[in-house]
Write a structure and sequence with these properties.
Elements (H helix, E strand, L loop, with lengths): L1 H29 L4 H15 L4 E5 L5 H29 L6 H9 L1 H5 L4 E5 L2
Antiparallel strand pairs: 1-2
Helix pairs in contact: 1-2, 1-3, 3-4
Organism: Amycolatopsis coloradensis
Pfam family, one: YccF
Keywords: Membrane, Transmembrane, Transmembrane helix
């Protein structure tokens, strides 16, 4: 079932959402100071391509720098990516088949707002 959902996700919204994260990552990697934001964005892009069967967990070793970085991320990229997830999720929830995909989009909003201090892990 995960494979089917991932393939449908990839076709309907995964590619576009991942592209948004890749663009944000490339922009962040232009400056040396924002490379950690770019790497986090690339990590989320991979998650946005194939989300079913994986989840986001908090890293317990992340401290104050992650919190400060998340505030900066929220202001410059996170809000716009979250709006993309909301709009895509609402559009997917219009159809019965798209409801699980819309819910998955809504579940990605927290990590799009605050990606630092998070880790993407495989589900058993």
């Amino acid at each position: 079932m995960r494979l089917i959902l991932n393939v449908v996700w990839l076709v309907l919204c995964g590619l576009w959402m991942a592209l948004g994260y890749v663009v944000a990552g490339v922009i962040c990697c232009i400056l040396i100071v924002t490379i950690p934001f770019g790497l986090a964005s690339f990590r989320i892009a991979a998650y946005a391509l194939w989300p079913f069967g994986r989840t986001v967990v908090d890293r317990h070793d992340a401290g104050a720098p992650s919190t400060i970085g998340n505030v900066v991320w929220f202001l410059f990229a996170g809000l716009w990516l979250a709006i993309g997830h909301v709009l895509t999720g609402v559009a997917l929830c219009v159809t019965i088949i798209g409801i699980p995909l819309g819910v998955a989009n809504f579940k990605m909003i927290p990590v799009s707002l605050m990606p630092l201090g998070k880790e993407i892990v495989e589900l058993p």
